[in-house]
Design brief:
Elements (H helix, E strand, L loop, with lengths): L19 H17 L3 E2 L8 E5 L5 E5 L2
Antiparallel strand pairs: 1-2, 2-3
Length: 66
């Protein structure tokens, strides 16, 4: 079986969203969904556009916008 080559991503590439309101709505919906499942927001939030959450056992995970 032959695999397709992996796409090359340049270190200088930048992701730009043209639909910021929809992106933010999904971001907040993901946070709400995680809270419904027992997660909680971490006291430390490193930057805008990143949400550090803790699962019920205290393990961290993140949501972020592009």
């Amino acid at each position: 079986m032959t695999r397709a080559p992996r796409p090359r991503i340049e270190a200088t590439s930048v992701s730009i969203s043209t639909d910021r309101p929809r992106e933010l709505a999904a971001f907040y919906a993901a946070e709400a969904w995680a809270v419904e499942l027992g997660a909680r927001r971490s006291a430390v939030q490193p930057q805008e556009g990143v949400r550090v959450m803790l699962d019920p056992h205290g393990h961290p995970f993140c949501f972020f916008t592009a």
